[in-house]
Amino acid sequence: ENLEQQQQLYELERENNIRRERIILSLQILAISVGLILIIGWLYIFYRRYARRLGRLNGEIHQKNREIKLRQSNLEEVNAQLTKLNQEKSHILGVVAHDLRSPIASVEGLAGLLKSDPSLDQRLRGHIDYILKSCEKARHIITDLIDVSRMESGEKITTQPMIINKLVKSVVEGYQQVAQGKQIRLSYVPIQEEVYAALHEQKMERVIENLISNAIKFTNKGGEVKAEVDQEWNFALIRIIDNGIGMSEEQQRVVFERFTKAGREGTLGEKSLGLGMSIIKEIAEQHGGTVRLESRPNLGTAVTVVLPLIVQV
Fold it and tell me: What is the residue-wise DSSP string for 24-65?
């Protein structure tokens, strides 16, 4: 009888333990379910907020994109108008500069005829010399303006193989009188080899003239200007060196700009339009070359035009 009671008690205790474990397991499942529901609810709320915020951001992005496209369209329109105006300006500049050649040539011719009159006194001859010098300066300015106009219109050049030595030597000889007028020693430093490059003769002659003219202009009386031709790897070099007043670093940064702020008077008050160096650079680039500049204030300047070399077989 006692055994049966003990057996019954054991069974009851075992059943209670099983119920307790089931209750605990149910509570754990319930707790996990509640936790998952809370997490899912929090994620849903976060998603709704994020979705609303994302929607607002997308709306702002679309609005910004529309504004950017509108501004881009306006900029393209303005750019097209500026391009057209620039082309018209270049055309007008070229026409005006070209048309000015004739009256200046007429004034120069008449002044030359007057100067040839042996009956003129010295005072009038001085005035006529001044007129002739002014005409020469005007011709240089007109040539610069025409060059700029042609370059802005995208002018293509035709080149042919040429000996650079001869071209540089010829220009140096042509500027001897100008250099002597300032008591400047202008020399051509010859090399034994003939250096060839594909050149547009008139344009490259203009480059050398501008370089020598600038060197003389910014060199004091008694100074020296040298013109050199050399080879470096696959390149031909035209180098003009002077011991003149030189340039500051700030001037060197802007010297190749059109109508540059680096433009200044020469050592004897010679005027400058601020176009010469920009024309030199653009002509060099038309030939597939570049321009190097080295200068120090009061010590001088060296300008080197670098051109593709033609090797003669």
Answer: HHHHHHHHHHHHHHHHHHHHHHHHHHHHHHHHHHHHHHHHHH
Fill in the amino acid letter for 104: I
Helix (H) / strand (E) element for 216: namely: helix 201-217
Residue 180, classified by CB atoms within 10 Å of its CB into exposed (0-12), middle (13-18) or buried (19+), is exposed
182 contacts: CB under 8 Å, gap ≥ 6: 216, 219, 221, 223, 267, 268
What is the dihedral sign for C-alpha 247, 206, 275, 221? positive
| CA-angle at 94, arms to 100 and 217, nearest 5° | 70
Residue whose structure tokens are 């009671």: 5
In the structure encoding, which two tokens stand for residue 12, read together?
């009851």
The interaxial angle of helices 122-152 and 276-286, nearest 10 deg, is 40
pLDDT tens column, 8-55: 777 778 888 888 888 888 888 888 888 888 888 888 888 888 888 888
The one-letter amino acid code at 199 reads: L
Q: What is the pTM of this model?
A: 0.64
CA distances from 245 to 182, 215, 298 (A): 14, 10, 4
- SS3 string, 21-33, reads HHHHHHHHHHHHH
pLDDT digits (tens, 9 = 90+) for 199-235: 999 899 999 999 999 999 999 999 999 999 999 889 9
